[in-house]
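Good day; I would like, with your permission, to put a structural problem before you. What I wish to show you is a protein chain and, alongside it, a tokenised description of its three-dimensional fold. I would ask you to consider whether the tokens describe a fold that such a sequence might reasonably adopt. You will find the record immediately after this paragraph:
***
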Amino acid sequence: MFVISCHADTGFKSHRLRRLPGGVVEGNLDNFAGCYAVMQAYFSGRMDFDHVRIELTWGEEAGLLGAKELVGSLDPKDLVTVVDVTGAPTENDFTIEKCPDPKVQAFLDKTLKGMKYDLFEGCPDPIASCDESDVYVEKCPHTFFLGIPCTGGDYNVGVVRCRQASLDAVAEALCRIAANSGEF
């Protein structure tokens, strides 16, 4: 099973979003950006939900409670990704972080061929290094973080920016991974 986990709660009391020139969006993006990308993939009609499971979790800002609840229903053979914003420095459309498993790396390199991303074994995000993937990897060794690059500050406390192209690329990556997850 390919499991997509995305926290659907935020640490903000109010939200705003503006479209800026050059295909940039600005707003309180943690984790509206992740939910948007996951929902783009969900509504694309390109996922076989007999082999794909999407979980919108809660409690990310409160000790990862939703992830701790979800982990009990995962199978150790599942391929699991966490979709969220990242402050990792990149010029590419998205990042793959916390991906030390050579089997997962090879699968993603093959599946995402031609896409613009950086793959990191660890977590290069200078803003936050703890997320749901830290919970899931204890049970599912084939877990990785799929990051939507944000700039302009701490995405946990205020307005940041990301490119619409990054949101679209993450949705496309999820569709490709889902379509090929049977080969994993």
Q: What stands out?
A: The mean pLDDT is 95. The first helix runs from residue 32 to 42.
